[in-house]
Design brief:
This protein is an alpha+beta fold and 191 residues long. The chain is built from 5 helices and 9 strands.
Length: 191
Amino acid sequence: MAIKALGKHYFEEEEFPLNICRIEQKENVTHEFDLTEIEHFHDFNELVFIVKGKGVQVIEQNEYLVTAGDVFVLQGNQKHYFKDASDIEIVNVMFSANSRANLISNSTKKLEGYNALFILESSYRAKHHFNNKLHLDRAELAKMEFILNSMLMELQLQQDGYKTIMGNKLEELIVLLSRHYSSLEATEAKS
């Protein structure tokens, strides 16, 4: 039976529903409410970046072999977990897109790839060979890791204005992923 993960356990402040964490199961570096290898769903969205290693991610009872460069966009109601995360490093970006915090601007929500990637149901994406994940090449992953590491540092230091920087970095991630998805759709349409 899947566990419901509540945002209140992951977000320090209700009005700022954004958090990021690095998970390395082989080193047992986890956070207090780590459900990485337990089937769960949540009341927020999650971007899962596979930054090192390989493993098996299960989403809605479908198994996906994952490797460094894979990115999953998980809607709150999707049941998921890692069946094998012993040789993997993950960065999870957890956020609420429906909050009063307005973490995602209207101009970002109007991007061509945003709607398909962040709004439409996973079943639709699976029919279009998306398989619930994107794969980034080394250069793209390095760009994303730079942003993710910046977010992790901001969260750790919590200096004045860190929420603004983290929100901007989240939006940058979303824009870059939306562009990447749009370019994949354009390539697929030409085939």
